[in-house]
Amino acid sequence: MWKEERFQKIRTLLQTYGRVTIKRAAEDLDASRETIRRDFSEMEQLGELKKIRGGAIALDPEHEPPITLRNNEQRKEKKAIAKAVASRIKSGHTLFIDAGSTTSILAEELAKTTGITVITNSLFVAQRLSVEKCRLANSITTILLGGMLHDSLPATFGEKTIAEIFRHHADIALLSPVGLDAHYGATSFDPAEAEIARAMIDNSKLSYLLADSTKLGRTSRVGFCPTENIDVLFTDKKARKSMELLKIKDRIEDVVLA
Fold it and tell me: Which residue of 53, 56, 151, 230 has the fewest CB atoms within a 10 Å radius of its CB?
């Protein structure tokens, strides 16, 4: 395959998914990983993409891949983040949790916690925490917020969902943004998702953001929380190499590297 043909196929993958791994590109293009690495380097120099560890992401900050894909990306890092968050949750806490791939993994860890109340718009989180073992053995109370079903996310949204959020007051809002930038703060691709996150923050004592290292320095269409209003940021250890993390630490006192 000619180089320009590979470039075009890589562009298509990035336009479709927002990011692509070296392994995925090598398989789809029937090329060696070394060839793909060289292609990514050249395309980055041309300003067509941004290289990340193990792959590349589109320069369009607004694009977010489908949740079915996000659930399998950075899974090890998201698992570590979820464990770190769960270690700070105590019996008696009331939590807001929004819908996303990282918070879905968080639900698996919170299922081991006792005596908490979870208020969420995520169908997956609600389902995971409302099973008999969690309800009875761990005394977990789960409240699924009503509203319209999202067309691309297993979650509720809309005016009814926002109204229900304002009926509750939580100790902590646990949120997973599309991107976190030191200057622009936490952002989301979907305005409806951003409204949910904003309402949860407004009705919580503390706000915890869960963002793996690939999200640092990224921005999307709608901001929902200035960096200074984030009480704790949970990210993974790969973020140590990120220049953006240094800027973020100037604005967020408590940063946890899981």
Answer: 151
Residues 187 and 141 grouped into a single domain = yes
Mean pLDDT by 10 residues, the chain (258 residues): 82 78 92 93 80 82 54 83 98 97 95 96 95 84 94 89 97 96 88 92 98 89 90 96 92 97
Number of neighbours of residue 92 by Cβ within 10 angstroms? 10
Q: Which single residue is written with the structure tokens 């983040």? A: 81
d(CA 35, CA 18): 20
Number of domains observed in the structure of the chain:
2
Closest listed residue to residue 177, CA positions, set 128, 142, 227: 227
Q: Mark whether 28 and 88 lie in a shared domain.
A: no
54 and 169 co-located in one domain: no
47: domain CATH number? 1.10.10.10
Whole-prediction pTM: 0.75
